[in-house]
Amino acid sequence: MDNSSLTEKIPPRIARLRDLAYNFWWSWHRQSRDLFKMVDYSLWRSTGHNPVKMLLEVTLERLAELAADPLFLRQYDAVLMAFEHDMENGHLWFPKHYPDLASRPVAYFSAEFGLHQSLPIYSGGLGVLAGDHCKEASDIGLPLVAVGFLYEMGYFRQRITPDGWQEAIYPRFEPDEVAVGMCCTDGDQLFVPVEVGDRTVHLQVWHVEVGRTHLYLMDADNDRNAPWDRELTARLYGGDQEMRIQQEIVLGIGGLRALRAMNIEPVVFHLNEGHSAFLVLERIRELVEAGMSFDEAQEKVRATTVFTTHTPVPAGHDVFPFHMMERYFHAYWPRLGLDRERFMALGSHNGGFNMTVLALGMARYRNGVSRLHGEVSRRMFHSLWPDRSEEEVPITHITNGVHVPSWIGGAVNRIYRKYLTPDWVDRHDDHALWERILDVPDAELWAAHLHLKRKMMSLIRERARRQRIEGNLSAEQVLCAGTFLDPDALIIGFARRFATYKRATLIFHDLERLKRLLHDRYRPVQFIFAGKAHPADDDGKRLIQQVYNLARDPAMGGRIAFIEDYDLQVARYLVQGVDVWLNTPRRPYEASGTSGQKAAANGVPNLSVLDGWWAEGYNGTNGWAIGDDRRYDDPAAQDAADADSLYRLLEEEVVPLFYKRDTDDIPRGWVRVMKEAMRTAVPVFCTRRMVKEYTERFYVPAAREAE
């Protein structure tokens, strides 16, 4: 049965289950997820919390039972009321403050979007940030259309071999089983042609509803294209430089053409990282071919373009050789009214065509994603503005945040509803509201955390059991998977992309010192690691192998675990369930980092280097700072100093505080740190604050300029 048959399958009384399933609104509304659990809890779990797939598989008999069940119908009607209320604009922040702009959309372009694990078109923080941005735009009523790719094989599924080496598995994505619909014009599927070098690629366009936000995804896997072109959108960040430039042509140029084909006319364009920077060239081409000069068109485009850079690591910025640019754009730059030299100058930087440089030059509004990252970006690109001092380089910052409703555990949500206000979700950027967290009884907050910790352990053990049954885990690997972790002992979590600058193995700098922490009879320490290395990053894979082999080592006593195939589901359980969130980047290479914000919102304190958001968020009482804010010229000296600081904090502060209990077995000093983490993190490091800041500082001024 395909998804078009759901309308016929579902009884009329509960027919709008399909509407709910096909809007990712359910992914951040607890009452909606509870409704789907009532349909068939076993199927809900076996389908990975994917309501579309669940409805495709549930029996007709079960649906008929639900249509006659008063308890289910009461929940169904309540969820529908909440859904319809949220789809209206009358009560929302943006329409109230900017009613004249309520129908003029912002277009948000990104190479990846992390909405839910059932839609695997993300690799990590950049995509999750983009997904959270879309959700928050819906919540505040900001008119936003987003553009990206429907990757047939997604990023990749991670499998770890018995010797600890990462293997990449690419299962084919099935759009019929996810909340994705085809875009049509005049009853026919929408296909958009785009020239990629000397050939034309036809892109099918798909539509995803994210609350009120509309996400459009392009897909080259259709029979209008040659077999080699059908692979163009197969993998996220897959292939070589040739594949990368082709994908970025499709994203920037094809993405704008897709919006035009649907008669969507954005007033502001936001480039989330440099992958979509060719968009500005396509906008200029339209204006030049309509009669403007290049300079006039460039100024008009610049005034309505926002660009966010996400990485202070030079390798994270796409740079294409000039001969490759010439091969793909030799017929394009005359349409801009430019010759080769002037065209190449638009992105020329250090001997190549730099996509970040193109975006910086074509956007009036430019930002990094934390205060420190803004400073680093001004230093990195100072040469583009040689007549200005480094402090005057026009790159500001808007610190990233997280979409709080998507990341809060159920037990913590109940605490917030009881002691803050039942509608805390609607007011979570209100600083005064969070002062009430100090009034929560220590015993209740600690009990909520223990509940989430045990849920995390259940997930870890169930995943290991299932992998063992399927033949994907040896008996020895079951130990590495975390099945022997003690839920009553301190658990420290480290989960993120395994890039070398993130220093996943810093805690192993002095193994004897670490073993003393692990094997303390009365105050043991445990570590959970999770994360993927890019398939082409052998150095990152070696880091995973080092962690994995130490987890296998009997000398570690089962106190170290590596959770395979890190995804959004695993991330939610970890940020809610560990006791401490560990982050050890080599400063200042962490642009922002949002996983620690998710942990703090659940009362999990951070133990982190003063980099990214933590350089702004740490106040001395809401977690712990590894090292200091000095700059090192010698990476080895920096690693040694930070490792010593990390061990000392664990030995002298973190571990003693966690195990210091009263007669009720409650670590009251620890709970004070938990409360302070919540109080200081949620109202500041949330997408509610972040998207409002983008709106007031960038989107609205740019929209006014366009009038």
Written overview of the protein:
Strand 6 and strand 7 form a beta hairpin. Strands 1, 2, 5, 8, 9, 10, 11, 12, 16 and 17 form a 10-stranded mixed sheet that branches. The protein has a 6-stranded parallel sheet with strand order 20-19-18-21-22-23, sandwiched between helices. The chain has 707 residues and is α/β, with parallel strands linked by helices. It is built from 29 helices and 23 strands. 44% of the residues lie in helices and 14% in strands. The chain has 3 domains: 3-87, no CATH class; 102-400 and 691-706, Glycogen Phosphorylase B (Rossmann fold, 3-Layer(aba) Sandwich); 407-685, Rossmann fold. The mean pLDDT is 95.
* CA-CA gap between termini: 49 Å
Specify the structural class: alpha/beta
- Under CATH at level 1, the class of the largest domain stands as Alpha Beta
CATH superfamily of the largest domain: Glycogen Phosphorylase B
